[in-house]
Amino acid sequence: MLTAGLLAFHSAVPNAVGRLGSLLEAFLPWLGLAVPVLLVWALVRRSATALVALLLPAAAWAHLFGGLLLPADGGVPHITALQHNVSDENPDPAGTADALIASAPDLIALEELTPAALPAYRAALAAEYPHHAVEGTVGLWSKYPLTDVRRLDIKPAGIGEGWSRGLRTGVRTPRGEIAVYVAHLPSVRIRASGFASGLRDESARLLGAAIAAEKLERVVLLGDLNSTVDDRGLAPVTSQLTAPRRGLAFSWPAAVPVSRIDQILTRSATASEVWTLPATGSDHLPIAARITLGGS
């Protein structure tokens, strides 16, 4: 009953003390692991009541996440977008770029670009992606022309000068122009005082305000948002955009992925499926999504 209640009513868990609600939502899919554990317990006890009660958390998990495991829709014209935090400690930028090219996306968004590594990414991606824009530590490479590129101010108060982790650009696709946002929200930490996400939440509010003011109808957001779409701290963004309909695509940490904190979200477009790509030299896995844009 407790597991079912946490799944079904996670938004009711208070955030006032240690942001426990956000911490729960950041790892919400993993509550499903309680179901097989409780199933074994019920079988050992030979309890029919416990077996019936297990239908509640199983149904709650299936309602929230079961659809992500279904096969993706196919046969609809789309573009493919790729999102990757490449890590500022990546030992092989050129190799990472080559690995991303091999998946043949139309758009590639990168975060944690350093001045030392940026020339390697530019050189490796130039032939396949002739259009690109970089603002601070984030960048977008595109097969299609870019328009109205500008820095996106998502810097929370209290962070020093030189912090630049957002950009906005138009992309002229074969199915019309779309607005593409690339963002890297501040990191979160689990501390003795709780889930430290205040800076991330403030940055999410700034990003949400920018998206709300976007004049183009179709929007694609690519970024490391440092939490899952279930986390209420991202509500200013996720309340306006839609997550992919298929795929769990846990992206972090790369060695043992337990959460998708890298996101591909859309407005007036449909991301039908999201998946991870093989590991690079980063502590994040790349993710990619097929996005249906509809008419121009």
Describe the protein.
Residues 82-284 form the Endonuclease/exonuclease/phosphatase domain. Pfam families: Exo_endo_phos (PF03372). It comes from Streptomyces caledonius. The chain is built from nine helices and 13 strands. It is globular and about 65 Å long. The mean pLDDT is 93. Helix 6 (93-102) packs parallel to helix 7 (118-125). It folds into two domains: 2-69, no CATH class; 79-292, Endonuclease/exonuclease/phosphatase (Deoxyribonuclease I, Chain A, 4-Layer Sandwich). The protein is α+β, with helices and mostly antiparallel strands.
Keywords:
globular; Deoxyribonuclease I, Chain A; alpha+beta; five-stranded mixed sheet; 296 residues; 2 domains; six-stranded mixed sheet
In short:
27% of the residues lie in helices and 26% in strands. The chain is of the alpha+beta class and 296 residues long. The protein folds into two domains: 68 residues, no CATH class; 214 residues, Deoxyribonuclease I, Chain A, CATH 3.60.10.10.
Question: In terms of topology, how is this protein built?
Answer:
Layout: H1 2-8, H2 20-26, H3 34-45, H4 48-53, H5 55-65, E1 79-85, H6 93-102, E2 107-111, H7 118-125, E3 131-135, E4 138-142, E5 146-151, E6 166-173, E7 176-184, E8 189-191, E9 194-196, H8 198-212, E10 219-224, H9 235-238, E11 262-267, E12 270-276, E13 287-292
Parallel strand pairs: 1-2, 7-10
Antiparallel strand pairs: 1-13, 2-4, 3-4, 5-6, 6-7, 8-9, 10-11, 12-13
Domain Endonuclease/exonuclease/phosphatase: 82-284
Protein name: Endonuclease/exonuclease/phosphatase family protein
GO molecular function: endonuclease activity
